[in-house]
Specification:
There is one protein chain. The protein has 269 residues and is of the alpha+beta class. The protein folds into 2 domains: 2-105 and 264-268, no CATH class; 110-262, Gcn5-related N-acetyltransferase (GNAT) (Aminopeptidase), CATH 3.40.630.30. It is 31% helix and 32% strand. It has 7 helices and 12 strands. Strands 1, 2, 3, 4, 5, 6, 7, 8, 9, 10, 11 and 12 form a 12-stranded mixed sheet that branches. Helix 3 (114-121) runs antiparallel to helix 6 (215-231). The longest helix has 17 residues, at 35-51. It is globular.
């Protein structure tokens, strides 16, 4: 599906989009802090892209939305949480200097005052159709993920095999007591969250996906997550890796504060 391109000590993994021959993705980047080395690496990549008549290069991109496709931007002293992207600060500097333009901005928001979010929950009824996560629910999460996140530049790379691999990698590192499934006539959805292994008093709300226009399902899932997180001793909750333009981010910003910013870039050739 792809291959590695190297220049001296820097390397990236090249992935061609199977559905759009105009796009090329750069994944698993390992870049030394040497701009001239990066410049020569990009020249090799662009030569390959031009030979293939590719029109756009996107960075960073690690095969699907279950993996790292964002880089941290700006400065922040906040400690990393489990499954958060990490990169040296010069990565974004290099790509922007080379001519890449940011096409996506993402944020993580930290909520420390739970009263604010519970005031929002009071507006919505309590449903009793929320199920605890069990191993067999991986298939349910896969179907919902495909339906909710399609079409997007990332979604068609998601395969059930990839999801199972991701699950196997993390299942012994986190608990799934903060992950819930909703399945009823109003719609289907799930919330994927966990206690942060790096800080047991911190809960991470990683993914929320709902197949319905009924906003009550979103609030019911989030309320269940918060109630369980508080029972487990959480002092704060991080709403992780939300698009700047998403309704989830707009709500999160009202009840918390920015924890970290991330970016995704493109260069037209």
């Amino acid at each position: 599906m792809g291959f590695e391109i190297k220049y001296r000590d820097s390397k990236v993994y090249i992935i061609e989009d199977p559905l759009d021959k105009n796009k090329l993705f750069l994944a698993n980047c390992e870049l030394k802090e040497d701009y001239n080395e990066f410049l020569n690496l990009m020249k090799k990549i662009e030569n390959f892209a031009m030979d293939k008549k590719i029109k756009e290069i996107l960075i960073p991109f690690n095969k699907n939305i279950l993996s790292v496709y964002r880089w941290i931007t700006g400065s922040s002293d906040n400690p990393l949480f489990f499954l958060e992207p990490f990169n040296p600060p010069y990565y974004p500097e290099f790509v922007e200097k080379y001519g890449f333009k940011r096409i996506g901005t993402y944020y993580s928001v930290i909520v420390e005052n739970f009263n604010k979010i519970f005031k929002i929950f009071k507006k919505y009824p309590i449903f009793n159709n929320i199920q605890e996560f069990k191993n067999s629910d991986v298939k349910v999460i896969y179907r919902i993920t495909k339906n909710v996140f399609s079409p997007s530049v990332l979604s068609h790379f998601i395969t059930f095999k990839n999801l199972i691999k991701f699950y196997e990698e993390i299942k012994n590192k986190i608990d799934f007591e903060l992950t819930f499934i909703y399945n009823n006539k109003e719609g289907k959805g799930f919330i994927f969250g966990y206690t942060d292994p790096f800080d047991k008093q911190r809960a991470i709300l990683k993914t929320l996906a709902v197949e319905s226009k009924d906003k009550r399902i979103v609030h019911v899932l989030v309320r269940k997550f918060y109630e369980r997180a508080i029972d487990k001793g959480a002092r704060c909750v991080i709403h992780a890796l939300m698009s700047k333009n998403s309704s989830t981010f707009k709500i999160s910003k009202k009840v918390g504060k920015i924890f970290r910013e991330y970016g995704l870039w493109v260069k037209k050739i």
